[in-house]
Amino acid sequence: TKIKLIKRRAYGYRNNEHFKIRISLETGRAN
User: What's the start-to-end Cα distance of the chain, in Å?
Assistant: First the structure.
């Protein structure tokens, strides 16, 4: 799934805030 891909890419970041922003951007672009 797309989320799984994003998770793997964001795994490097320990910053949860950054991760949430990334999810918002990716999902927003997907829609």
Answer: 14
Alpha-carbon span 3 to 11, nearest angstrom = 12
- Over residues 9-20, the pLDDT tens digits come to 666 556 667 778
Write out the two tokens for 8.
């793997």
Average pLDDT, the chain: 73
Query: Is the confidence at residue 28, as pLDDT, over 80?
Result: yes
User: Taking the domains of the chain in order of start, what are their residue ranges?
Assistant: 1-31
Helix/strand/coil for 21: helix
The pair of structure tokens assigned to 10 is: 């964001």
